[in-house]
Amino acid sequence: MAQVWLIVGLGNPGPRYELTRHNVGQLVVDELAARRGETFRAHKANARVVETWLRPGGAKLILAKPNTFMNVSGGPVAGLAKFYGVEPAHVVIVHDELDIPFDTIKLKTGGGHGGHNGVRDVAKALDSGEFARVRVGIGRPTGRQDPADWVLDPFGAAERKNLPILVGDAADAVEQLVDEGLLAAQQKHHAPRV
Questions:
Q1: Which residue ranges are tagged as binding site?
Q2: Where is the active site (predicted)?
Q3: Domain boundaries in the chain?
Q4: pLDDT along the chain (194 residues), means of 10
Q5: Catalytically annotated residues
Q6: Residues marked as binding for tRNA?
Q7: Cα 53 from Cα 71, distance rounded (Å)
Q8: Rounded distance, CA 121 to CA 108, Å?
C-alpha cells in the first residue's frame, strides 16, 4: 500500500488574503495541485483538499488548505490527519517564515514554532511537533512596519516578479521531501542559489 502524506498550505481564507505573504503556503499547495491538473474540493474537516499522487505508483498526497484563519489551523489539520490515518511524521506544513529572507526555502522536522501561530496551533492539535515544515522565506519588514501588518500585505512589485520561481522551488522541495527524504531536500534547497 502506498504511503500517504498530508501536505498542508497555511494561510487565511478569502480573496482579501489570497496573494498576501501569510498565504504563500497555500500558493505552494496550489502549485502542487496545478502540476497534477487537480482542483480542490470541500472536505468535512473544514478544509479544501485534493487527493492525488506524487507520480504514478508513488506516494499518495493529500493536498490541503484549511478554511480557517492561520492562527486556528490546527483543527482542520488534525481532522484531516485522523480522517486519512496520517501520522505526524507524514504531515508536511508549508508556511511563511519572517526570519528567513525572501526567495529562500528551509526545511526541518520538529522543533519549536518560532513564534508562528499557525505552526503552534497545528502542533497543539496534533499533540506533536514532529511534523515536517517547508518554511518559505518572506523576510522582515524594513523600517518600523509591524511584522503583523507585513505578513498581511500583498507581495511587493519586485517580490511578485520572483514569486512564481519561489513557489515553484518550494513545491519542488515538498516533492523531494516526500520522495527522497528530509536530508536530500535540505541538501538541495538549503544550498545558495546560483
A1: 17, 69, 71, 117
A2: 22 (proton acceptor)
A3: 4-189
A4: 91 94 97 98 98 94 97 98 97 96 94 91 96 96 89 94 96 97 94 62
A5: 22
A6: 17, 69, 71, 117
A7: 29
A8: 17
CATH for the stretch 4-189: 3.40.50.1470
Query: Tell me, what's the pLDDT at 1?
Result: 60
Dig out the grid coordinates for 163 from the structure.
514569486
Q: Is-above-0.85 flag for pTM? A: yes
